[in-house]
Amino acid sequence: MKIFDAHSDVLYKMWMDPTIDFADSPKLHITYNQLKATGSKVQCFAIYIPEEVRPESRFETALEMVEIFYKRVIAPSPLLKAVRTKEDILALKENEIGAFLTLEGCDAIDQSIVKLQTLIRLGVSSVGLTWNYANFVADGIGEPRGGGLSSFGKEVVQEHNKALIWTDVSHLSIKGFWDVMEVADYPIASHSNAIAVCNHRRNLQDDQIRALIQKNGMIGITFVPQFLSNQGHASIDDVVKHLDYICSLGGENHVGFGSDFDGITETTFGLESFIGYDVLVNNLLKHYTETQVEKFLYHNFIEHLPCEINPCSN
Asked: How many domains are there within the chain?
């Protein structure tokens, strides 16, 4: 089955360690060889600027990760093609894999719409507004103040609307989430789970899940053990519990997966790397029909990509 994975931190790992070879490095949860072997059709690659990077260097760091994306991920991988739109993905040949560039947190753009526009022109097609803390756009979920979108933040979201790209609410404060629901045309939560199943601040409350569904958004269930289970360790069964719960709230057509591979140090049992998707698929088929599993793995995210030609052909 085809797989659309909505979040990974491969670029961050490769930026931290220039010796990493994307083809088959054992230091990575996701490699080119694993993508080819495991049915990947679209893999998202996030630009994440670590906290220790000084503010004046953050945009340059983002550009360095864009260069890694094109030079060290795409260029040496014959079947991997950079994609920006639904049309690009639907145009992929049978054995080709789409590589989708995203931004995790707007720290890199400071207070500059031009910097945001530049990253979008370089291929960024989904933008998370914050990591866990505050920036000029909004507060993250870890910021005690819990503020919402700034005036600049609303301008950023409106820029996403004009560019026909996703606004990602994962990591965002609760107030920021609701502000986004008022402004964004294309909201998603690329890597967030259900707080009713696992009580972690990064997970979504029931009313947030319902709001994303009503706004025709998407939720990517993530494989971070701490977001899956209150026990601190997790298995594929816990992934299924979150999927079941989101579906019970009406989310069957609005849920997929955003692994957070290479952004985590601990992994879920059975999902230690991208190869684990094979095990997940077999488990899902015990609970859902083949058509439903295909939606969760791929079609739901594809259906919710903004489209220049309306309607897009499938």
From this structure: 1
